[in-house]
Amino acid sequence: MSEHLEEARREMVERHLRARGIHDERVLEAMGRLERHQFVDGPMMNRAYEDRALPIGQGQTISQPWIVALMTEALQLVGDERVLEVGTGSGYQAALLSRLCAKVYTIERHSELLIRARRIFETLELDNIISRRGDGSIGWPAEAPFDRIIVTAGAPQVPEALVRQLAIGGRLVLPVGDRREQELKVIDRLSESAFRGRSAGSCAFVPLLGKEGWSPNQPG
Ligand code: SAM
Fold first, then answer.
1. For a tag on the chain, would you pick the N or C end, based on fewer CB atoms within 10 A?
2. What percent of the chain clears pLDDT 70, i.e. is strictly above it?
3. Nearest residue by C-alpha to atom 18 in ligand 1
4. How crowded is the C-beta side of 88, counted as CA atoms within 13 Å?
5. The pTM is what?
6. Catalytic residue list contains 191
7. Does residue 111 fall inside a structural domain?
8. What angle do CA 51, 200, 34 make, to 5 degrees?
């Protein structure tokens, strides 16, 4: 079983990530080591290395490996950064970040998901992850500024609070669009008031719900 999963993970890295344009060797190496099957429920384990999002409960998903790799590569981590993640979900993205930067702050609105993710962080001894339950659309003001911010749920617009909590020289990566489809945006903070943004392609995330996200009751 574990040999079969190890082989599937190797194939995921080569076929779905490297062959499709992911170049950052640190990201490829970390995804080659991190056991995605530990972040999904038993019946899903055998599908953990397919290039697709999988259900994790509460109507939420663990993101597709390709998009995780793309967003992580876009963060351009060298190892000394403090990173905020909005949307802990299964904990997979946070665990990956924890192996690529100095400290990860991650926020999740569903306590059931957060509790499960924390258990995995403990098992894997990922001691540089700090997590809390809450509305990540308003960031984590007490710990700001952050060198990098990654949002793993689709926002209707770029949350002002997250922009304010970005360090000068920092980078924000997030999906922005409607509830079904978004554009992946990469925003650099060049100075106190100057920003530069680009699009890194289209994607489809579950909605970011909260004060600077979608209203939980909003249609469409
Ligand atoms: N990064 C996750 C992983 O590696 O499994 C996948 C995230 S899943 C696609 C999106 C997550 O964002 C869900 O768990 C959802 O509950 C959470 N979420 C949505 N709005 C949020 C908010 N305002 N604050 C915190 N988490 C939020």
1. C
2. 98
3. 87
4. 30
5. 0.97
6. no
7. yes
8. 35
Q: What's the whole-number mean pLDDT along residues 72-96? A: 98
In this structure, is residue 30 part of a structural domain?
A: no
Q: Nearest C-alpha to atom 14 of ligand 1 is from which residue?
A: 89
Cα 3 to ligand 1 centre (Å) = 31
- Asked whether residue 1 is domain-assigned, the answer is no
Give ligand 1 pocket residues (Cβ under 6 A): 60-63, 86-87, 89-90, 92-93, 107-110, 113, 135-137, 152-153, 205-206, 208-210, 213
| pLDDT surpasses 80 at 199 | yes
Ligand 1: which residue has its CA nearest to atom 12? 87
In this structure, how many other beta carbons lie within 10 angstroms of the beta carbon of residue 59? 8
Average of per-residue pLDDT values in the chain: 96
Total tally of structural domains belonging to the chain? 1
Whether residue 143 lies inside any domain: the answer is: yes
Q: Which domain holds residue 138?
A: 55-203
CA atoms of 87 and 94, how far apart (whole Å): 9
- Give the number of other CB atoms < 10 A from CB of residue 167: 15
Tokens of 29: 């190496």
**CATH number, domain containing residue 125:** 3.40.50.150
